[in-house]
Every structure is written in structure tokens, then in C-alpha cells.
Amino acid sequence: MAEVKLTAELRTEFGKGAARRIRRAAKIPAVLYGHGTDPVHIALPGHETLLALRQENALLSIEVDGKSQLALPKQVQRDPLKGFIEHVDLVIVRRGEKVTVDIPLHAEGETAPNAVAMWDRNDVSVEAEATHIPEGITVSLEGLEAGAQIHAADLQLPAGVTLAIDPQTLIVSVSDTRAAVEEEAAEAAAESGEEAAAEPAESETAES
Fold first, then answer.
1. Top-level CATH class of 100-183?
2. Which residues fall within 8 angstroms of residue 140, CB to CB, at 6 or more apart?
3. Is 187 helix (H, G, I), strand (E, B) or coil?
């Protein structure tokens, strides 16, 4: 995974008002911490940071006051309505250091006729070098029949990458198409029944 270089500015003002002024200036408030260092409060360039964070587990090279620091996004806070980035927590990493991250899973191939893949997870936790985090892991569904299962241990991981979850964790199960449709219909009926049962209780509460 290539490093994304960002030039940041040190922040000297804090609080909601200061954060709003930073965002009005097309920048993003952030904090850089880890490896026993004191937290460093910075402002990141808005557009460049937004583009960088579209990539899962983006490896960032943050330059502050002429010094560069490698970091991974730990938490990205977004406005719940407008979706813009409000704040970013960045954790410092070192070259060669192992980190635990969630990697997205991508399907490849088609199941057998009359079979459908049911995903239990869309990502998997792995341990990898901070500078060699895979962008994704491919899961082959080619020709799988109803009844087949794929567990974490079955995933083809890149060299140097190891699982950080139980190897028996279920990733994908393959069902008969008709059985899958019937299961979805049964779940929908159960949900409708729960809602219908809840309505009279709400009415009784209102009357009392």
C-alpha cells in the first residue's frame, strides 16, 4: 500500500469554536498519538485528506514542522447528516511494525446453479506490517454447492499477513436458492408479527 503524504499544521486553539473555524478554512481537525508520545493536535488539508481516507487503512505520511510521521487512521468522525469529516484520530506506526487491522473481503466467481452465498462477515481482522497492509482479500465462490462453507482459515492471505481472529470464524455459507428465499420470507414474517404485537401495547399505554 502506497503512502499518502499530507502536510499538516499545528493547532494552538481548541474547542468547538476553534474546530468550526478550522473546517471553514477547508481543513480537518486531527490528533496524532501513539508509541508513548504526547498527543499532537494538528489540522489536515481537507480535500487531500478526504481523498486519502476513501482507501481502507490508508497509510499516511504526516509532515508537521518539517518532520514526517507515519500514521494510520484510528477513528474518523463524520457529520451524521452531511457526511463531511469532523475529526480524525491518527495512531503513529513504525516501519516494520505489526498492526492489527480489518481488511475488506471481495467475492470472486459464481456459485453453482441454484446456490447462493450468504456472507457472515464483510471483512476480516489480520496482523500485517504497517507498510504492507493489503487493500483487500479475495474470496473465491467459484462452483460452490449448497452446504459449502468458508472459514477464516480457508482465506488465501498475502505473504506476511496472519489472522487475528479465530480460524474457525465463519465467513461465507452457501445455501440452496429456494431455502434462502424461504428463510428471508420467514424472517420478514417474524419481524412483521413482532411489529403487529407491539402496536396494541403502545395503544394501551397511550390510553392509560
1. mainly beta
2. 108, 109
3. helix
Pairing between strand 85-92 and 67-78? antiparallel
Q: Give the tens place of pLDDT for each residue, 151-180.
A: 999 999 999 999 999 999 999 999 987 655
Q: Which CATH class is domain 4-93?
A: mainly beta
User: What are the extents of the domains in the chain?
Assistant: 4-93, 100-183
> What is the tens place of the pLDDT at every residue in 62-99?
998 888 999 999 989 887 887 788 899 999 999 889 99
- Rounded CA-CA distance 112/185 in Å is 22
Which pLDDT score is estimated for 21?
Answer: 86
CA–CA distance, 173 with 35 (Å, rounded to integer): 40
DSSP 153: G
DSSP state of 150: E
Are 55 and 94 in contact by the 8 Å Cβ rule? The answer is: no
pTM (two decimals): 0.71
Q: Which of 84, 139, 86 is nearest to 111 (CA)?
A: 139
Q: What is the 3-state secondary structure (H, E, C) of 114-147?
A: CEEEEECCCEEEEEEECCCCCCCEEEECCCCCCC
Q: Which DSSP category does 174 fall into?
A: E
